[in-house]
């Protein structure tokens, strides 16, 4: 009997199977397993390259600098590396309701006000709905053209008719092509739509911005090929409970990938935040116990973030440990180090630790600020308002240096923090002593708790 052959293959990783499956057994992607074509594909024969297309030594090729066109939004230009490059394909992803459409509508309005013709294609909303939002955010300009289309061929016709200098498609998962079978948002449809729009962008030197949906785990919906095709992949992050938004570059062929743009959602749209340090610090003019400022790094930007701690006596056999904006396991480790290495009893107290402004601190450089905030709350003694802490704490109580220490210290000095406790203190016990000494405490040694 003839051995059965695999009749189904995954379009993402090439995994083969005898029966159809809704999910690939290798890459775990949904809807990528299709049936193999019966006839074998003919092999591609070699052909002579056209005139002027032959391979040349890299040293004989003249370098050409890529020109960036500013969008008028400094924070967005920071992430893109200076602006939008002609012919670039940009993918902006984010959770529903985070403000992707609002940001891109503002980008389109700024470009249109500078004389560029912009085509904004909304496949999810009608032109009347987009017009209402534009009126609310002050984005009405005659050079901004709106279209509500879900067919790829019609969108290409709109591009031919309008001849724009910038095209925005919201979103790529809701556009379908009649040349490919399947519903909009499927793997084959997303691949065809993205490849066609990117080809148009390269041929006409017109930048195209695509909006991408995300799955429940935060990844971009559709095939991973979509991220490989585009030139820039940006992620729009934010918490619905706060007005703060971040734009990060996950991939950028024309600039750095470690920049972060800060925005704030307001009633009039989205506004850029040039100096976000005021968002992560409390506005109290009087020093309060249990607070300490950490200098965190968001990309290549140093941000002061205030850490607050509250300690309450508890009679429960297992005191509570509640955190917000910091890692709970990291806080538990710091509490154990404070109790063991500094003689600070904390086992009979409820401990609450939180950050200001809704920002999340995940880097170890915030360890020292968390520890000093807890020590200040435990003794009920406020630290100096001009003190900042930078450092990672080991289980032995040693303070380790962190990356970007010089940049963090320079930003702290620029913002008026005259005292910076860092790895020069060597040990947590010494850092606590310096922190209380800067608060003009009479006891220069570690106080008794």
From TrEMBL:
MF annotations from Gene Ontology: ATP binding; ATP-dependent DNA damage sensor activity; damaged DNA binding; hydrolase activity; zinc ion binding
Residue intervals of the RecA family profile domain: 65-214
Pfam families: AAA_25, ChlI, Zn_ribbon_LapB
Region (Lon-protease-like): 350-449
GO biological process, one term: recombinational repair
Protein residues bound to ATP: 94-101
Ranges of Low complexity composition bias in the record: 42-57
Biological function: DNA-dependent ATPase involved in processing of recombination intermediates, plays a role in repairing DNA breaks. Stimulates the branch migration of RecA-mediated strand transfer reactions, allowing the 3' invading strand to extend heteroduplex DNA faster. Binds ssDNA in the presence of ADP but not other nucleotides, has ATPase activity that is stimulated by ssDNA and various branched DNA structures, but inhibited by SSB. Does not have RecA's homology-searching function.
Protein name: DNA repair protein RadA
Protein species of origin: Microcella frigidaquae
